[in-house]
Design goal:
Elements lengths: L4 H13 L4 E5 L5 H7 L8 E6 L3 H8 L3 H6 L5 H15 L3 E7 L14 E7 L4 E7 L4 H19 L3
Parallel strand pairs: 1-2, 1-3
Antiparallel strand pairs: 3-4, 4-5
Helix pairs in contact: 1-6
Length: 160
Amino acid sequence: MKIDYNHIEKIIKKLASQNQTISFAESCTGGRIAAAFTSISGASAVLDGSVVTYSNAIKHTWLNVDNEILEKYGAVSSQCVAQMLEGIKNISGADYALAVSGIAGPSGGTEEKPVGTVYIGLQTPFSQEVFQCFFHGERGHIQEQSCAFAIEKIAEVLKI
């Protein structure tokens, strides 16, 4: 799965035509979703901003992820990603938000959450959904698949 820049261009055009915006909260993807969007001319019309919240402390401080969630479920969990979505929406006021947290490897995996476990959340004006994904390959490939999946989900919701 590769990032579909044609989809990104269509997402930007559709959001712009509807006067809507999007923001991102990224962890294991390290800003790659934001970089993919900003590589397309016109992104400034719809991209409010993006934060890379790699550490638990920054997830808590910047996005208001509850420490209890981080302690009980971990940063790589649907509960954490749901709160990351709420946090970025509260900061930016964007109509749409994406949040990603996972284990890109090669270290960090456990039996319960192996390398390649990634949670990807999408917040729309109408709903919130968090997807549990299992990607395979080396670190960069897992990051790329995570970005591609997130972009596909936005495209689906916007019917692109």
